[in-house]
Amino acid sequence: MPDRRPYRREAEDKRRDDLVAAALDLVAEGGPQAATVRAIAARAGVSPGLIRHYFASKDDLTREAYRHLMTRMIHQAEEAAASSALDPVSRLSAFVSSSLRPPVVDSVAVGVWAGFLYETRRDPSLREVHSATYLGFRDVLQGLIADLPRDATTEHLRADAIACNAVIDGLWLEASMLPESFAPGEIEQIGLASVGALLGIDLLSAKRNVPA
Which domains does the chain have, with CATH numbers? Predict the structure, then answer.
């Protein structure tokens, strides 16, 4: 008889992912307070008791949903950099561009992010998730900056990554909250020019070598 364990495991992983997706949808629609156990279960099409099979508590599920949201956006930017031309400037250009256009720039995502960010004040574990994902994004950015053809100490690389990350975060927030206020591609161009100016690198020219 064939081993059915891999199929069962896949089904369990999908059910867990469905619960995370349901929690994110509810937070997007009504804030963290809308993501009750009953509401999450109803959205995912399962019984409330089944949630405990996958998560120790609702807070555990909430933290996983936030981690999923943040790591998904990081991975989308990373994949763009990995698929670009091999030279370091083009990789950084692709990373910045991807961070400042859809699907990373998204009004729903920023609403969910804001809801979770408020909750970090009362939940130390959620704050740890926020810290880990922020540092994860910054570490990727610092690695890309370190590969650039220029001399920089470790301290300068860290400072550059913090500054560039702040520029990207601010523009991401503005573009996601008020997309109608900017021309197509405007935020992306501003981001490339601003990050490039901070680093002394022409990222706008490099963008021409990066697939859209």
Answer: 1-55 (1.10.10), 65-207 (1.10.357.10)
